[in-house]
Design a protein that fits this description.
Shape: elongated
Oligomer: single chain
Order of helices and strands: HHEEEHHHHHH
Number of domains: 2
Strand content: under 5%
């Protein structure tokens, strides 16, 4: 190939011409191209769509698989990150003491770092990092060689991480919207912090998070 041929070969017109040259027919009807008076005219033929249906269905199946995995994984990760971001705040029952406080503060810092980094970088950069750079980083830090993610695994991990960061902010907002009086009433009854989140904060927060979660998923 000469000059910029590798890039030109990706253009739509050259792709059409390649198909036309491979499908010459009598009467000068050439696949997707018809020649009239020395001019090439694009035509539309349904048979090429019919022939492509199996490949399109395979692609739809793969897209559905990645989407479902991304939504479910992102919802779990986003819930954990959203709750961790609110650790040691009044939204989840106030401060703890001792070792628990240290663990909560570390978890909160990690959650903030994860959310800000993922939301602040393009998803294509995240995909390239997971597919190309992460195996090299693991090899450099642990000495373990031969680690390589296939394209599907890298895509699923990327979607989960990206969706989780955005869902974490939705969960955080929903948790903060719960009336503080309900939280104080639960603490006054002497229930544990875990029971407070599971029985009082969680049901209300998830109910309020459904509309923004649906909007986020539909616009993804």
């Amino acid at each position: 190939m000469k000059g910029n041929a590798p890039y030109e070969s990706l253009s739509f017109s050259r792709w059409i011409n390649a198909i036309a040259c491979s499908k010459k027919r009598a009467g000068r009807n050439i696949g997707l191209i018809r020649v009239e008076h020395g001019r090439k005219i694009m035509i539309f033929e349904f048979k090429y769509i019919v022939e492509s249906i199996p490949a399109l269905l395979e692609g739809a199946k793969l897209t559905l698989y990645i989407t479902i995995c991304g939504i479910l994984g992102g919802l779990v990760l986003g819930t954990v990150a959203g709750v961790f971001r609110l650790a040691e705040t009044d939204a989840v029952g106030g401060r703890c003491y001792g070792t628990t406080r240290v663990i909560n503060l570390i978890a909160r810092k990690l959650a903030v770092l994860y959310i800000e980094v993922i939301r602040g970088t393009p998803i294509i950069v995240q995909a390239m990092f997971i597919y190309f750079a992460l195996p090299m980083l693991i090899e450099a830090t642990t000495g373990i060689r031969g680690i390589r993610f296939n394209a599907l695994t890298a895509a699923v991990i990327t979607i989960i991480l990206n969706a989780g960061a955005y869902m974490a902010e939705i969960i955080r907002g929903a948790v903060e919207s719960v009336d503080r009086g309900l939280i104080e009433a639960g603490l006054a009854m002497g229930i544990s912090r875990f029971e407070l989140i599971k029985s009082i904060i969680g049901p209300i927060a998830f109910k309020r998070a459904i509309p923004p979660l649906a909007t986020s998923l539909s616009s993804a």
